[in-house]
Specification:
Number of helices: 17
CATH class of the largest domain: Alpha Beta
Largest sheet: 6 strands, mixed
CATH superfamily of the largest domain: FAD/NAD(P)-binding domain
Structural class: alpha/beta
Radius of gyration: 24 Å
Shape: globular
Distance between the termini: 46 Å
Strand order of the largest sheet: 6-5-4-7-18-17
Number of strands: 19
Helix content: 25-40%
CATH architecture of the largest domain: 3-Layer(bba) Sandwich
Length: 475
Amino acid sequence: MTSYRPVQERIKDFRPVEIPPEESRVREELKRCQDCGVPFCHMAGCSLKNVIPEINTEALNGRVETALTKLLETSPFPEFTARICPALCEGSCVQGLNDVPVPIRETEFRVIEEGFKRGLVRPVVPEFRLPFSVGVVGSGPAGLSAAFYLNRAGVPVTVYEKDLRPGGFLRYGIPDFKLEKSVIDRRIKLMEDEGVRFRFGVLAGEDISLRLLSREHRALILAIGSRRKRDLDIPGRGLKGILFATDFLSAQNRAVSGEIEAVPAELSALGKKVIVIGGGDTGSDCVGTSWRQGAKEVHQYEILPEPPKSRSDSNPWPQWPKVFRSSSSHEEGGIRRWNIESLEFLPRDADQSRLGALRFREVEWVEDQKGGFKPVPKAGSETRESADLVLLALGFTGAEPGKLAQAESFKSFRPGGRIGPGQYVCGDAATGPSLVVRAMADALRVAEELLRDLFREDRALGDPDGAGKILSPAP
């Protein structure tokens, strides 16, 4: 059901590529949702546990305000997930057993955007404030979700962000043609109007110590993400012209928003032959961004095998379908290859300090004695491909090794929750790199856990009703 602007039009700018479907088309799809008896989309698919059948029913009957109310009961930022979530819910849609799934994500987009258009999404200022504050480190999807939940519960919240603008990976890792940054700014303005305080350009652990933060706040939530990039340690890695994908994407995002005047030449694909190593969403974003910057040619290599066109027997419904997919960026051109193992970066003949080619070979995935699979080189397949720019889109391995992540409490945490007195961790920093919707869900759970812990501590100190008994009017 998703449709896009024409390729030759959209590759000339960084505006959104998706075209919202007509209301009549949405209604036809929503009617299919009404035939479902057991909503696996809600039970097995959605990390936030959105009541999707109820939301869809209200939307089908034109009750947008009611649909919006039900959506916002579980999802803090539907405008984000409606744009960038892979829609795990659709993977477990009952209609997907015999037909294409109901386009749940597009309905969510329509509901939340109609809500903003009608002025139904308004600041909600707590009537009372609790007599303690919480600091949230990081303003990515997890940090924003935790701050949103705590503020709505009456807790004064300050969010600390090392960058000059909020959003974390939402702002600096996802291209504008998938998520315009005005969408983030709109939400931040709402949160500020609700009382959330933001401090930008503050690197927690260095500009302000963890000890000082702990003095200023009753508790801290560390939502610093999983931004340590996975590298490719092969010969020639030090050559000029080999970049991490997120450095490449971030530079373009900063240029679009005006943070920098233009993308530096060394971070641009203009006039270059580009090889993207990594077949995931970030790799796809590199493909789309390269074309928009004026790349001469784009290749994308993945070491894993090409996914099947339909579900395999080992991947039954309602599991997420591990099948072949093409993004809007792939539709814009380029060459995709699977089963490719990178061996060496080769220098140019004329400049031995700069990248000239990638040497690689094909592999076959063979089952081992333990029941797993391992790559085995394919005889006679070794070759090379010239390149001016290689982008490493190999994912992330954990939190960046700054002073905050090196703190003893952080290093010894149990994923998702309390890591020490008054300290909590959530999102990708706790679970490892995952999806935005999962980071948001984990942050909401941890924020609720934090409140329970603080109320329990206050009861133990002699307040039988917990900290909630001592309230002061909101400012």
